[in-house]
Structures are given as structure tokens and as C-alpha cells.
Amino acid sequence: MSSDLDTVNSDFANDPQGLIEWAFRQGQRPICTTNFRPFEAVILHMVTQVRPDIPIVWMDSGYNTEATYQFADALIKRLNLNIVSFLPKRTRAHREALEGPMPGIDDPRHDVFTQEVKIEPFERALREMRPDVWFTALRAEDTPERAKMQPVSRNEDGLLKVAPLLQWTAKDMYDYLQAHDLPNNFDYFDPTKVEEKRECGLHLQH
Ligand SMILES: Nc1ncnc2c1ncn2[C@@H]1O[C@H](COP(=O)(O)OS(=O)(=O)O)[C@@H](OP(=O)(O)O)[C@H]1O
């Protein structure tokens, strides 16, 4: 990592809002991705406070819980999100009619499933939107891999990846939601991960 980013990472280690403002100045086509998992209202509120019309990219796999769809709908309205959805090329009904219910993580077909419902839509989003700054709500607490990350990094394509909440705990997130009267969603299920601490490759590959 360049020494410039090292400086940014140390300057903004505990200043998510400052980091967000800095990151917006680094590009012309920022995006924020969300899957509407628990605590996502925090990053969505923070980035839209600075840039209300930032595109919010959602790969809707078709396999979200009812509660997640309701939470997404409520948050999109509440924050007036500029949501840009990317759907798999086949509907869930089409896929299941031919191949049955989603494969479990030990099933050899699971990788193909993940590619179809999450990775391909994300790669399409990258091609169509050509972002130069990418905000996520990744946190060090999520997985051992994330515990080793820095808040800002640049991938090999030059995309600036920004995780302003990397050092925040669940309590920090909860307190922010309370302070801003924002909703939360714990009835969340990611069919490509199933297990909470699993990485399915989206952010590691990009
Ligand atoms: N379905 C969908 N739609 C839009 N954006 C999504 C989606 N899945 C993942 N993401 C974004 O990628 C970040 C990492 O997600 P995951 O932990 O699910 O994936 S992975 O393990 O890295 O593959 C994830 O980070 P968070 O913002 O912390 O949730 C999102 O920003």
C-alpha cells in the first residue's frame, strides 16, 4: 500500500465521517454497496449525509427474507436512497424450477449459485457504473480477514475501497442508530454465505 494511503488510514482511523468526506474528494463516480444486513442504516445514513444522491448499489439475489425486503423498502424511503438494483439474469422461480432449492455450502453447486446470484450481478454493476470510490460497511469484528484490513485500500484496477466503519464495534453501530433514530434489521440471511463468519469472495476478489 502506498505511503499516502498509510497516512490517510492513520489520520482517519477513528473518524468515519472525516474519512467519508476525504474519500468523496478522491473520485467522480462513488458508489456505496449494501445488502441491507444488520446495521447497514449506519453507512447509508453517513454517506448520504455528505452526498444525498450517491448511487446505492444492491444486488438483490431474490433470496432475502421478507423482513429484509421490508427493511430495505423502509430505509430507501426514509433516506430517499438513490438505489440501483442489479438482479441475477434468471429469476429465483426460473432457477428453482430447473435446479431446485438453493444448494447448501457443502454442495458442489454452491459456487455456481454464488456466481449467479451475487458475483455476476456485482461484476455487471462494476462494468456499468465504473465506480472510482467504493464505500462498504465492512467491520474488523466481522471476520478474521477483515480484522487485518485497513479502512482504505486501492485494488489493482485503481478502485478506491473505503470501509469507514472498520474499527466500529456493534455497540458503536447501535449507538449511532439510536442517536439518529434509524431502523435495524436482524432477520437477515445471505444464501451465498449461510454462516455468519464466512467470506464468499465479493470484496476479497475486487
Ligand atoms: N447483495 C449485495 N448487494 C450489494 N452489496 C453487497 C451485497 N452483498 C455484499 N455486498 C457488499 O459487499 C460487502 C461484503 O459483503 P459480504 O460480506 O456479503 O461478501 S463477501 O464475503 O465479501 O463476498 C458488503 O459489506 P457491508 O457493507 O459491510 O454489508 C456490501 O457492501
Summarize the structure.
With 206 residues, the chain is α/β, with parallel strands linked by helices. It is built from nine helices and six strands; from the N terminus they run H-H-E-H-E-H-E-H-H-E-H-E-E-H-H.
Write up what this structure looks like:
This is Phosphoadenosine phosphosulfate reductase family protein. Residues 40-185 form the Phosphoadenosine phosphosulphate reductase domain. InterPro entries: PAPS_reduct_dom, Rossmann-like_a/b/a_fold. The chain has 206 residues and is an alpha/beta fold. The model has no long low-confidence stretch (mean pLDDT 94). The chain is 43% helix and 11% strand. It has helices at residues 3-11, 16-24, 40-50, 66-79, 92-99, 110-129, 144-147, 170-179, 202-205, and strands at 30-33, 55-59, 82-86, 133-135, 152-154, 160-162. The structure holds 3'-phosphate-adenosine-5'-phosphate sulfate (PPS). 3'-phosphate-adenosine-5'-phosphate sulfate (PPS) binds at residues 33-35, 37, 40, 43, 57-59, 61, 118, 136-138, 190, 199-204. The site of 3'-phosphate-adenosine-5'-phosphate sulfate has 21 residues, from α3, β2 and α9.
Task: Using brief descriptors, characterize the structure shown.
206 residues; alpha/beta; 6-stranded mixed sheet; 9 helices; 43% helix; binds 3'-phosphate-adenosine-5'-phosphate sulfate
